[in-house]
Batch of 3 targets.
Target 1
Amino acid sequence: MIDWSQFTPETALLGGLMIGLACALLWLLNGRIAGVIGITAGTFTSLNAERQWRLAFILGLVLSSWLWLMLAPLPVAEVTGNYGLLAAAGLLVGIGARLGSGCTSGHGVCGLARLSVRSLVATLTFMGLAVVTVFIVRHLL
């Protein structure tokens, strides 16, 4: 069910435009693709000069959510799942994204914008498996 009272296409559009702008600026100004998994992993393995922009990028991700929280009220999120299971799922997603050489930001946003066939296959794979996983968890288990 969609809670139509919480449907906010304006803020979703604004968020999408901001993500696209940030990705384009990182590409144009730094020659880098805004793949969060690769940037995060590279923070721990890169030389000092590389590490600085990566840390700034991650800090921007964290601070931007706090800034938005101060400017706009957010709906109350209700977590009904098992926290251990959610943490394990997040860890598996991170491992899978690292093994797949990219995540939704790297493949789904930046790769598709560059018309990368590899990114199209990756995005179709993880989105398709997400649909299958939700179907199994919600309807078969």
Note: Helices lie at 9-30, 36-45, 48-71, 83-99, 104-113, 117-140.
Target 2
Amino acid sequence: MSEKYLISQEIGSFRKPTYLSSVFHKIQGTEEFNVLAGRATIETIDLFKKAGLDNIGVGGEMFRWEMYEHQANRINGITFYGPVRSFDNRYYKKGSITDRIERKEPYHLDELEFLLENNISNIKIPVTGPYTMMDWSFNEHYRDRYETAMEFAKLLNEDMRELKREWDRKYSGKKLEIQIDEPATTTHPDEMNIVVDSINKSVEGIDNVEFSMHVCYSIDYRLLYDVMDDIKIDGFNLEFANRDTLERGTDDSSRPGYTDLKYFNEHNDKKKFMGLGVTDVHIDYIEPVELIKDRINYALKILPPELIRLNPDCGLRTRTREIGYEKLKNMDIARQEILKEIR
């Protein structure tokens, strides 16, 4: 069995070291910030490699504080009124669109430049998707939610083109991986057309890039699966473990969090891959290797191994670095054991 099967990947964020998190907002934009964020990135990449990950993302998003706020801060036309709660005990500054939006600076070019300078290529760049940027903003300017999402999509397309140009300067011919984070995807079931159109506008005209979509919570994934063949991406990285039990077993009753993989498989006409969330990022409990293996083996009864990737449900920034590492390590041990069994 080739190692290309059951690729292990990190989703995005990871807990920052205290030396960075304690001064992040005070020094952001300074050379000291770049030094500390770079140091934290390398330390986190080393931790990911030690845990056995194939794909190290961007090293835990050490250059970012929060997925919405990071991009909104780099867009003209957005006014901030105050913080709102996102999930767990996490908050972000929610903006209101008060004028025509346009990028005032790149979203993630500094991260990519740092990774390229350090000769790191097994990356996947997470970007916040246009539907979520629209849904998490107040709108005082555009006609409706559709127009707003499409405007965010135009900006994201500009930004990803810039990332691709920078990538090609060093790794021309090698595919860049970009993950579009869309946690708001299924929160409004009657707006799946906006999800589809805005993502497709975001990726329009960008070649030799593997695009995936990450959703870290959902009312009903079937809403997404019903339109997934219309979305011009290569695969999904989704949350499953959070809705699952901690019991052992590979039957439907033991693995309720994964049963909708059957619906995915039935509707996956374009053979898109599934990044399978096998460890819960909302609990400190470190899932045993055998439990993770059961989750993977259940999925393997439904999907071929070449369409399965392994990841946490979401970024691990709400857990300590020690717990995050243990979760990733157990995920990779489970992966290695299953690869030996199915060779």
Note: The mean pLDDT is 95.
Target 3
Amino acid sequence: MKTVKVYGPGCKRCEATEAMVKQAASKLGIEVAVEKVTDAKSIAMAGVMSTPGLSVDGKLVHAGGLPDETKLEGWLTA
């Protein structure tokens, strides 16, 4: 099971990123545990300078804007 964290204050882009993660995981048949991180201090400590941010299994893979669907699938299968 992959652990995915979505970093952001809860904006529409953050919600869309979470939905994209769940959709990609479902498409690929991968189990994911998605955690939303909304605390500003926690977001900054994770190294996210622009939201939404995304980490997979503890590695920050994306920050700022919606992730590319192909890249997202790659991160989930790595």
Note: The chain is about 40% helix and 25% strand.
